[in-house]
Amino acid sequence: MKFIVVTGGVLSGLGKGITSSSIGCVLKARGLKVTAMKIDPYLNFDAGTLNPFEHCEVFVLDDGSEADLDLGNYERFLDVSLTSDHVMTTGKVYGSVIEKEREGNFLGKTVQIIPHITNEIKSMMSNVGMKSGADIVIIELGGTVGDIESAPFLEAMRQMHSEMGHENFVFVHTTLVPSLGTLKEQKTKPTQHSVKELRAIGIQPDVIVARSERPLDDSARRKIALFCDVPLDAVISAPDANSIYQVPIFVEEQGLTNYLLKRMALEVPDDGLANWTKFLKKVMNPKKDVKILLVGKYMDQYDSYMSHYEALTHAGAELNARVQYLRMEAEDISKEESKDLLGEADGILIPGGFGSRGTDGKIEAIRYARENGVPFLGVCLGFQLAVVEFARNALDFHDANSTEFEPHTSHPVVDLLPEQKDVTKKGATMRLGAQEILVEKGSKAHKLYGSTTISERHRHRFEVNPHYIDMIRDKGLKFTGKSPDGKKMEIAELDGHPFFVGSQFHPEFKSRPQKPAPLHYGLVKAALEFSKKGK
Ligand code: GLN
Questions:
Q1: Ligand 1 atom with the shortest distance to the CA of 462
Q2: Which of 51, 456, 462 for mutating ligand 1's site (highest number of atoms within 8 Å of CB)?
Q3: Cβ(461) to ligand 1 under 6 A?
Q4: Tens digit of pLDDT for each residue in 147-205?
Q5: CA-CA distances (angstroms) from residue 350 to 347, 412, 425?
Q6: Catalytic positions, please?
Q7: Fewer CB within 10 A of the end CB, N or C, for the chain?
Q8: What's the rounded Cα separation, in Å, for the pair 453 and 423?
Q9: Full-prediction pTM beyond 0.85?
């Protein structure tokens, strides 16, 4: 078992997740078994209680863990399904050590950051390697070197490097190389400083991945190699990419795969990233364009709905189409430009969400899609609001609502799941993770999934109120997917509409390159037909 640790310097948001995933991707293409782990040095136990504005999308794993969005990148780039073991936070590490202390595991001893916290970190890292049986574990350390909160993690890694031996532990440091002045000269000083910071902790990076607007100049590359004491072929240029899926190709072309293999004393055959290149060609050479409008709450941040954007990209690639994302803040629905966006859209997607802000706008957009035959996909809250909209406008229950937003509505068409009634704690208490769904034969969902039994990931507290199911169905909104006991409504499809589908689960989390989420595929396909016909 070998570890590759990816750290970040200068500032956050350098795309460490994509770098880590891309390194994993190229090594996997050489036939190695690769897995990945994210360390987030914050005190929260997991990402479940963080809002998308604060910390981007919450990514849900099969086992119900609520994780950082980088877990989504690992799953998509490595085509693996991960578990809660692959997420470490300061909250988790300290929680576990304090629990052990209370059990008396350290009787008589003073419990300290070194060695108790660092030992816990090391054992969580080794555990991932052992359980997954991976040849290589990529560890991404969130935050920036020099942050107070990342210090115990870096110390644990320094120790692991000397315990496991140089061949088995590699440090990759990602930094920023800004370009300044009229000549746009690339400046390497911030990189030199952040490497100095790492060295002060006792870590010498093996590889520097330099993020920059344009490819790294030869002189900047040489300076980094000289001052940071890394070989020239271990300075990797990571310019802004048109698609994140190009990054493994950049990594491979600059020889990083071979460098890493040599550094880890591994000999494996070269496959030239054949499969990945096939997928990338489809992403980069679309034959047509299609516009999908997302209506949500945090629209100026790509990261807040990352898995949806990626699922749409995967779907588009399979359909030889480039998906252009149109974005609308749900609260802006009555603005003139929002009307234009609705008119421009070939398909509309309403993602999941919490809280009442923006729900009226989302309901309006759903109504527009339903009445105008615009392909529509509603996910989780988007599905629940499609039911609310239908109850209000097709069943004439004018005050129909979810009790999440109006506890005293006379038509609670969406209501708390019975098992949620006594839950008061907020962390990891929703209906979470992969659950089986039975899909009705002959339905659109059945055709898209090609199966009547599927498994998809969930994250919700509310559901379609069983009391209203027959009334809603009789008016044409059919529930074509249900939990195996038949009690929970999982998929809705509208009769007589080209594509009006909602799912209580989140299909976006399982979408992968070359295996797009079926419902996103269905939406993009219907949107292409809709745009061809002319609106
Ligand atoms: N707020 C809704 C619920 O808890 C929907 C959740 C979601 O969209 N993830 O059921």
A1: 10
A2: 462
A3: yes
A4: 999 999 999 999 999 999 999 999 999 999 999 888 889 999 999 999 999 999 999 99
A5: 10, 21, 27
A6: 380, 506, 508
A7: C
A8: 30
A9: yes
